[in-house]
Specification:
The structure is a homodimer of 351-residue chains. Helices cover 39% and strands 17% of the residues of chain A. Chain A has 351 residues and is of the alpha/beta class. Chain A has 3 domains: 19-63, no CATH class; 73-172 and 310-334, Rossmann fold; 175-307, Rossmann fold (3-Layer(aba) Sandwich). In chain A, the strands form 2 sheets. In chain A, strands 3-2-4-5-6-12 form a 6-stranded parallel sheet, with helices on one face. In chain A, strands 8-7-9-10-11-13 form a 6-stranded mixed sheet, with helices on both faces. In chain A, helix 1 crosses helix 3 and helix 7 packs parallel to helix 8. At the A-B interface, strand 1, helix 4, helix 5, strand 3 and helix 10 of A face strand 1, helix 4, helix 5, strand 3 and helix 10 of B. Chain A binds a DNA duplex (30 and 30 nucleotides) through residues 18-20, 28-32, 34-35, 38, 43-45, 48, 63-64, 66-73, 129.
Chain lengths: 351, 351
DNA sequence: GCGCACTATGCAAACGTTTGTATTCATCCT
DNA sequence: AGGATGAATACAAACGTTTGCATAGTGCGC
């Protein structure tokens, strides 16, 4: 620390104009000002309305969100809880949520809640009275600790993207289909020995992709070695390690393709394969679910399945809004369009 | 959309217990309950204190943040505005901020504010009355549009990481030194023809790194071709394009090393170099400022300069807290420790 | 037994809104 | 002309806290 330099005080601290000030200046009652500024009110003279508007403008009036919240009993704000801001999977979802919030005039409060290790889990403070509902993108929603904390919040909650505890409102993608799409693509390239590097099977998403994978394998009448199924955390390290497990067999027993449940894991996988001297896609094709610009920058650039994440976020937010308005929660599976981004980590099987 | 399934209404909607309820149950006055629950009050009997505490517990009382905020005139919350959640540079800073907030019991509101294209810039709504101050990590703080919006907020603001308009409170790193560190390292490897792929020169950070680079070059008594200075946006695409400019000269006029201002740009650079068939580090060494796990996964793994970003975030938050408490803003340059992470994108010059 | 200094607690106002209801005033109908 | 109607606006309560001040109760010295 060095080289500090003070700075002129930015504001002369004139206290903010209140509604009362506006009313006084416009020569009307408080209630009149309130109604006219929220403007969906008929029954006032245009002249009065204008007078109030001018007064507000002149004083630089901005409505005090807390007072409003207090009176209304609602915040017009929601929170989105993500386990890890570094995970590429979330930013697009967040943007979808953000868009929906902007439309409704809701404030979005993003909070990173690293998956809890028992009691040490961070419980973001101040959600308490600050938001009307929560979007939860945990991998570990089943964690009883997190679950009970969430319940204690007594707020409408929608689980999104990463799976949901039983009977909770949620909007998820058709993960069975997504996993199947990957398998179908790889089979289309001629592969028959396909491994699955799954995301955590403790998550709904992981389980459903697993199911989809298995069904697709069966549908194509393929066989699979037990070692070809490896479960990992949604992280670079998890992907690396699982890849060593999958490929750590004699070369003739290796799969010719690996379907990977997330981009972060795929990045780890690439790193492991390089270390093992396995050529991609020469020896093994690699394909990941999740799309992000960075996939194009790997060596080789990764073939991915792009998911409609933005729409996912938007729908989840909309459901949450509906619940805030008293509606019931639902469990919806979003069948939005996916897209295979063909890059260079996959190739037809030559034998 | 398909397969929707309704879900049992999660809450019987018992209205939240208020302080009045607690007081009633404990048989004390509202004010007593209030004081005892915020507990830094002497002068009450222990028995009363306990009675209140028990009542609160029994009713599951949680204080209503708005009411409190309204009364106190402050939110105990701050916002951090980042231009792009996809940029690796921010997550660590965010964690530092988060840590500081947790300690003070402040709520952190993260918001992505994509750099504005004139009027279309998104102004996150509801900052208005919801936070006591703002941390700004824009690249484009000089944008008059953003600046005036920020001023209109009339909130204490601290600029962090990406540079600050004149005379605004800020905490930045010693970017001159950082740039120099990179140059020194490359020179130590024997390089004398060093290019600089800068982050946007419209940012304070960009300018200061540029200055540091030039000074270091001069200090080592080196020469530099004009084409070796390329300015780019802080993005993958920006890095790619700038690299084509730098290397788009006859091979004998190419630099032997490139110092890059950010990891995202470096990722783009690697992609461009691969496309041009330039070997890294065989033909050219590449080193980037900013560290992130993903740097280890590039081909080749990138040598980087790790910045004390977490501390940066923490300090910025603390300064903001001080300003919220009425203190003056400062401009501080953080001279925290940096670390060179040596990987495989740099090599000694052989000639 | 009276005032005094405490100690422990209650009273009430205030923060800035929103909104149900009351009021004023002009107009119209019969 | 007198009451009913309706338009335009004002009154006042309420949301859930915090906090300055007032008050009731206790023990004490005289």
């Amino acid at each position: 620390m060095s080289d500090n330099e003070s700075v002129k005080d930015p504001s002369p601290k004139r206290p903010r104009a209140t509604l009362r000030d506006v009313a006084r200046l416009a020569g009307v009652d408080l209630s009149t000002a309130s109604r006219l500024l929220r403007n969906h009110v008929a029954g006032y003279r245009d002249e009065t309305r204008e007078r109030v508007q001018r007064a507000a403008e002149q004083l630089g009036y901005r409505t005090n969100a807390q007072a409003r919240a207090l009176r209304l009993g609602r915040q017009e704000a929601i929170a989105m809880l993500v386990p890890d801001l570094d995970n590429f999977g979330f930013t697009q979802v967040l943007r979808g949520v953000q868009g929906a919030c902007d439309e409704r005039g809701f404030t979005l409060l993003i909070s990173e809640v690293p998956p809890g290790e028992g009691e040490s889990a961070r419980r973001p403070p101040g959600l308490e009275g600050r938001v009307d509902g929560v979007l939860v993108a945990f991998a570990t929603a089943d964690d009883p600790d997190v679950a009970s904390w969430l319940a204690g919040l007594e707020l409408p909650a929608v689980f999104v993207q990463r799976g949901a505890p039983h009977a909770h409102a949620s909007v998820l993608l058709n993960e069975e289909r997504n996993a199947a799409t990957v398998v179908d693509y790889l089979v289309g390239l001629g592969h028959r020995d396909i491994a699955h590097l799954s995301g955590s099977l403790r998550t709904d998403t992981g389980l459903r992709r697993h199911r989809g994978f298995e069904e697709a394998i069966a549908r194509h009448d393929l066989m699979i070695r037990p070692q070809w199924r490896a479960d990992a955390e949604f992280s670079i390290a998890g992907g690396r390690e699982a890849t060593f497990r999958i490929m750590g067999v004699s070369p003739d027993k290796r799969p010719t393709a690996i379907a990977i449940d997330s981009l972060v894991e795929a990045i780890g996988a690439l790193s492991a394969l390089r270390e093992m001297g396995v050529s991609v896609p020469g020896d093994v094709s690699v394909m990941a679910i999740d799309e992000h610009l960075v996939a194009a920058q790997m060596t080789p650039p990764l073939t991915t399945l792009r998911l409609p994440q933005q729409e996912l976020g938007r729908r989840a937010a909309e459901m949450l809004f509906a619940m805030i308005d008293g509606g019931p929660g639902e469990r919806v599976i979003l069948d939005g369009p996916t897209e295979i981004i063909e890059r260079e980590s996959t190739a037809p099987l030559v034998r």
